[in-house]
Amino acid sequence: MYYLLTKVSLTAILVALISEVSKRFSLLGAIFASIPLTSVLAMIWLYHESKDIKKVIDLSQDIFYLVIPSLVFFIALPLLLKKGVSFYPSMFISLGIMSFFYYLMTLILKKAGLV
Q1: Strand, helix or coil at 25?
Q2: How far apart (Å, rounded) are the C-alpha atoms in residues 104 and 67?
Q3: Is pLDDT above 90 for 91?
Q4: Element (H, E) at 47
Q5: Whose CB has fewer CB within 10 Å in the chain, the N or C terminal residue?
Q6: Cα-Cα-Cα-Cα dihedral of 89, 68, 109, 43, to 10°?
Q7: Which sequence ranges are marked TM in the entry (predicted)?
Q8: What pTM does this model have?
Q9: Half-sphere CA count of 97, side-chain side, radius 13 A
Q10: Rounded to the nearest 5 degrees, what angle is found at the Cα of 72, between the Cα atoms of 67 and 75?
């Protein structure tokens, strides 16, 4: 139980720190946010818990493939905001578009036999 609380706390602290840094220094916040902290932490926790290198390899490769559709979010959100769509609708529309591209990518990966 303490281990789970440690994982959750560390992850939450990192997200909060990035948010606070971003308030003052947008570029520095973006650099920290663009580092795949969540992915790195997930791989560390996975390895620590399982000691299974194959699981870490699989997770790493799957993350690589799914970064591509996630980038669509970072294209759609600023475009919608620049068009005058308010923040929350822009966020939800961008998440919907990204979800659609995740779906397409999973179909492509399955068809190619990569997952």
Answers
A1: coil
A2: 13
A3: yes
A4: helix 37-50
A5: N
A6: -100
A7: 28-47, 63-81, 87-109
A8: 0.72
A9: 17
A10: 130
